[in-house]
Task: inverse folding
């Protein structure tokens, strides 16, 4: 049982690396069009090549999927995708972009998004970590949890590269490990302040 | 005073200073242990951030760059000495001086070639290779 205290988790921060484009697409396409939350997605991506990532991710997503401009006001129903070669952060109700130091050899990196979201929104934050190699996102997960937020990983058996989810599970009490197909439902329920029960693995009585 | 790379003790809460430099900015590199399994995170003043595998990888990249700098230095020196030997007669150098330049050029060329061969073979920097089988590339030939 996730979110027993029924808090709305309306700041959804998503990180993914190798093998995460397809499961993140399936998360985004399964979200309701009236999702009462803002989403931010950091995908490890090439710093130079333009890849039309928001168009790819948004192809079947009912929400607006954009690369924000620095200083855009955070809005519900919008999916913000970190542009290449920029970290994406939350501060003062806005989305900030900067070219701060690379973390885990990459920019955008997942940890700066997770940590800034946690600092700005505390328990309202839901972090979701997808397939990938390495450990970006693990420190961010610890920060989110310490501030009262929730964390979910793509289940390692469902992830093409399970290293990132496995490291998160090893280092912290992650709230759930779900297949990509279930994550959309979980996000929708938690964003609205509902309790999510994993149908495949019900919580012990 | 003993030097170290990793500090002898890492306090989980406030971290520690390492004895190695940040591979991206040469600043002082700190470290801390996070999570219940003691996940090590290295962070410099700038906030360049690495896990263990990333730190090793970037350190290896910097080592490769610096070794190439050595090749450039040796090849430039060899060429300078060779040109001085070839053109010395026009500038009043004695035959003995020109021969000395040529000898030094040959030594520099030899060392440049040796270093280039070593880097090409990846033997000096492929840490994973020597970790997995405990042998150096030289042993495998």
Result:
């Amino acid at each position: 049982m996730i979110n027993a205290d029924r808090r709305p988790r309306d700041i959804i921060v998503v990180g993914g690396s190798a093998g995460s484009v397809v499961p993140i697409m399936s998360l985004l396409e399964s979200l309701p069009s009236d999702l009462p939350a803002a989403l931010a997605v950091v995908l490890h991506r090439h710093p130079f090549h333009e890849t039309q990532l928001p168009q790819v991710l948004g192809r079947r997503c009912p929400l607006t999927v954009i690369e924000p401009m620095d200083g855009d006001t955070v809005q519900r129903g919008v999916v913000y995708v970190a542009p290449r070669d920029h970290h994406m952060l939350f501060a003062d109700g806005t989305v900030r972009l900067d070219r701060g130091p690379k973390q885990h050899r990459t920019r955008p990196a997942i940890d700066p998004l997770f940590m800034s979201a946690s600092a700005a929104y505390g328990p309202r934050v839901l972090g979701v970590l997808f397939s990938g190699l390495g450990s970006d996102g693990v420190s961010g997960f610890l920060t989110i949890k310490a501030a009262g937020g929730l964390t979910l990983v793509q289940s390692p058996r469902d992830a093409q590269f399970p290293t990132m989810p496995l490291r998160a599970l090893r280092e912290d009490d992650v709230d759930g490990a779900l297949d990509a197909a279930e994550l959309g439902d979980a996000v929708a329920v938690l964003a609205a302040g509902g309790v999510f029960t994993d149908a495949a693995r019900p919580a012990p009585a | 005073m003993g030097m170290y790379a990793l500090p002898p003790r890492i306090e989980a809460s406030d971290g520690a200073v390492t004895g190695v430099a940040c591979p991206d900015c040469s600043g002082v590199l700190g470290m801390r242990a996070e999570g219940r399994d003691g996940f090590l995170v290295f962070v410099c003043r700038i906030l360049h951030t690495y896990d263990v595998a990333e730190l090793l990888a970037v350190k290896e990249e910097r080592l490769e760059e610096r070794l190439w700098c050595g090749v450039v230095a040796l090849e430039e020196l060899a060429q300078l000495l060779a040109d001085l030997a070839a053109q010395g007669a026009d500038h009043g150098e004695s035959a003995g001086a020109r021969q000395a330049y040529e000898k030094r050029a040959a030594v520099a060329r030899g060392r440049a070639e040796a270093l280039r061969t070593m880097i090409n073979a990846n033997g000096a920097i492929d840490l994973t290779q020597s970790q997995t089988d405990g042998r150096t590339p030289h042993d495998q030939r």
User: Anything to note?
Assistant: Chain B touches chain A through 18 residues (CB under 8 Å).
